[in-house]
Amino acid sequence: MEIGKVYTFKLNSGEEMIAKLVDMESGYAILQDPVSVAPGPQGMGLVPSMFTADPDKNPRLNMSCVAIHSLTDENVRMKYIEATTGIKVPEKKILVG
Description:
CATH architecture: Roll
Helix content: 10-25%
Number of strands: 6
Mean pLDDT: 90
Oligomer: single chain
Distance between the termini: 40 Å
Low-confidence stretches: none
Number of helices: 1
Number of domains: 1
Largest sheet: 6 strands, antiparallel
């Protein structure tokens, strides 16, 4: 895994989590802005994984609780960035002229 990239983690509990990896240390992934994938009225949505955690501290994910992980799909990654920063990433378009 590469520091600074956004990953999707499927936990042993079945929960799916998306977060930016900021560091790795002895069996733990240090994450920034983890969100969980949850069903909503308009389909799947992103909700904070931890509601009462200190937002200035990066949580640690015990990697022994992870069944599988992968880089997050580009479309989902853009929604993650929008949800965690408020920045709307423009859609990539090819200019034809």
